[in-house]
Request: fold
Amino acid sequence: MEQFSYLAVLFFIFFTTLFLELILKARVWQKMKRLFLTVLPVLIAMTVWDWYAIKESHWFFDKDLTTGLILFGFLPIEEFLFFIFVPIAALLSFEAVRAIKKQSIPGENS
Amino acid sequence: MSYLQIAIIYIIFALLLDSIILKTYVLRLKVFWLSYSIVLFFQFLTNGILTGFLIVTYNPAVLLGSGNYTDTTPPLIGDGRLFYAPIEDVMFGFSMIVFTISLWVYWGRKGIQKEPISGPPPKWWPKGHWYGTK
Reply:
């Protein structure tokens, strides 16, 4: 089971932020097109950094604490998912704070 | 390049994206800093797990800290570490969050799924001056 350690951290992030969508009405998961257009460039930018860091041995992933599933020949699937779920968690936090503060963004009124 | 050098490049790019490229100016928003402080708290928690349990380890040659912690628990605070993780990780996270919020606001202004806007929270959700709500 310990090979799911990193994945468990990502599931923790996913589940603990769900209430922001479901209860505080962050309305982030609901906007799939806007979410895709936002997360894809972030995913690409951060994957480039990860590619360089892995290639140059800046950081390492424990073989026993990760699944060992590698995408594109270098990227652990946990890193790929990290670059999706963490930006979504940040958006949920941002929109939930806006919801509570009833604050609109300049240029994006209503 | 060191971890810090790449982090500085990414931070500069994030600042340019927000101010000159997309003109979203999210760094001027109080809601950005409020939500970022929440994200930062959970970054310390989750990244502390990833680095404290050695799920992710680092090459000391590219870090500000000098100790080799590939086989042993890094310091909680000290030797370039903050809650077990390299302090450069804060810059990594910050650039990623600025990219994300800036792009999100940009697409909203372009009219892509701008509505329905977030909220309202349920009636039982506590109101309090600590987060600036009337």
